[in-house]
Amino acid sequence: MNQEFYKELLDSLTDGVYFVNLEKQVTFWNKAAERLSGYTAKEIVGKSCADNILRHVDDEGVQLCLHGCPLAATMEDGDLREAHVYMHHKFGHRVPIFVRTSPMRDESGKIVGAVEVFTDNSKNLDIIKEMESLRKEVLTDQLTGIGNRRYADITLDRLDSSMRDSGVPFGVVFADIDHFKEINDRWGHRVGDQVIAMVAKTLKTVLRPLDVACRWGGEEFVILIPNITHDGLVVVTERLRMLVAESWVDYENARIAVTASFGGAISKEGELAMAVVDRADRQLYLSKEAGRDCVHIAGENISSR
Q1: Domain boundaries, position 35
Q2: Do 179 and 223 belong together in one domain?
């Protein structure tokens, strides 16, 4: 079979294919490569890919032709490589592609160049983005933008596993907006939603990056805090209570004051996550019984206000 047969065979592929020699000069450029890049074979063949004509970059914008070129690495060590990169299209835009590189050898087995096969990755990226969007939607409370009950359950499972594996304790804190029914009855559900969103934002902005605030349901929130001591949980929870009490919602000519009751507990060795949740929930009940706008943490005999 002659070279023309193999050329026609490669031109029939839907994947882009091109060859380079050891000087990184492009020696072959198939029809799919023309379609995906906008460059014809006449514009590419004979040019050096080191001239950065295709300008492959990674997700962080690093130009791979200058640093970390898969083709160059493959010609160096003979290993096959795969990568998700972005190619510069002739018309100026970036095209996400999935590339695979392999060495080209002569009859003696000596590397004489490399071949890159690349596929349009746009649809795959769209699917990934859609899945991420759906995942976020499924795990996010739409009113507040923080995690929902399902996300709280997932986080609890993760903290529980970490506790069992490494013995690192975690804290569970419940927060319940005080007199929320009265707010709804007097000002309406729209204002009630504003109050819930305001409290959620307050909780989220105070916490550390690894701490998680979720809407447990209605006007109740749960805060999950990894790697914290009992005394630390008392300090954090009191700070949350104080900042909520210093917040408000403006509606028409009125300023609506908001407070919340808090109850928390620290995980114990061998204790199931839901047992920690139950203990924290009992502490929340004690805060409500004590007059609201206060903190009760399991192991503490006093509340703070």
Answers
A1: 3-126
A2: yes
276: Cα within 13 Å, side-chain hemisphere: 27
Q: Is the pLDDT of residue 21 over 50?
A: yes
Residue among 227, 232, 234, 236 at smallest CA distance from 203: 236
Q: Which of 126, 161, 190 is the last residue of a domain?
A: 126
What CA–CA distance (Å, rounded) separates 278 from 283? 9
Reported confidence tier of residue 299, pLDDT bands at 50, 70, 90: confident
DSSP annotation string for 24-63: -BEEEE-HHHHHHHS--HHHHTTSBGGG-SS--B-TT--B
Identify whether 110 is part of a domain: yes
Token pair in block for residue 29:
């450029």
Cα–Cα distance between 177 and 286 in angstroms, integer?
Answer: 14
Mean predicted confidence (pLDDT) in 66-72: 80
> Of 219, 238, 252, 269, which residue is the catalytic one?
219
pTM here? 0.59
Q: Is the per-residue pLDDT at 300 higher than 70?
A: no
- What is the tens place of the pLDDT at every residue in 251-298? 888 889 999 999 999 999 889 999 999 999 999 999 999 999 999 999
Residue in the block written with tokens 């649809």: 123
β-bridge pairing 212-217 and 220-226: antiparallel
Q: Do 283 and 154 share a domain, yes or no?
A: yes
220 is catalytic: no
Amino acid code (one letter) for 259: T
CB 45 within 8 Å of CB 19? no
